Structures are given as C-alpha cells and as structure tokens.
What does this fold into?
Amino acid sequence: MRRQEKECTDQDQLKAFLQDSSVMHIAINTVETPYILPVNHIYYEDALYFHSANVGRKLDLIRANPLLGFSVTEMIGIRQSAERPCGTGTAFRSVTGTAKAVFIENEKNQILNQLITRFTKHPETSFPDDILNAVAVIRLEIISISFKVDTRI
It folds into this structure.
C-alpha cells in the first residue's frame, strides 16, 4: 500500500465496517472488460455474502471465472484547504480486496435470513423451495483485503 499511514490493521474495526456497510461493488472478469456492479451484502463468519436471481450475466461470468475484486466505501466528508485547491481531500473508509466466489446450497436459507433481517424488519423465516430454487447465494472467500481509513476533515 503506497499510503501506509492510511492503512488500518485493526481487525475489529474492519469487521465492524463490513458488518455496518450496505453496498459492495464487485468487479467480475469478462473477455473484453471488467464488469462492475453494486450488490447488497453481509459480512458473516469471516466471509462476504450476496444473493442474486439464479440466472443472468453476473452469474454466467462468475461461473466462468469465480475470481473477482470487491470494494466497500464510505465517504465521511470533504476536507478543504484554504491555501490551495490541491490540498483538498476526502475523509473516508474503504475496503478493497480479491475473493473466490462460491455458490452455496446447504446454508442458503440461513444466509438469506441473515440478509433479510439485516436489511428489513421481517422476522426469520423458512423459504419455500420455489424461492430457494430461483435465488443464488454466493459466498466470497476472501483472498486478499486492504482497509484504508482517513477520518481527517
């Protein structure tokens, strides 16, 4: 990491940031260009999870190459310099990393419940088979991760 003063190695802060954040961008490999899209996610038992319809470009690309990049960011504010415009900066938290996407089946109901209770007020439920069959749940097994923090405003 070039700006090592911004690196945060505190694992508790990293986990809290991933647990509290809502949107993660994933970068999937294609033959032509990277394909980047936002997904809602949860951080659970040292992995990231998201769900998707069971068909579509995103899943076709992941099945072809399960290695991908991910990013989670939070903009805290803008730091302005009165002396010079190039002294302006952004206060932020950001996580970037690489992972291997794994389609899960055995824990699908459990992870869907984690997602539902994280983002809605619905209580846990047992999903019917037609729903479970129409949805893919993907676990990102983290290969590398970097956590940068700059909270100066």
User: Anything to note?
Assistant: The helical segments are 11-20, 57-64, 108-119, 129-134. The longest helix spans residues 108-119. The radius of gyration is 18 Å.
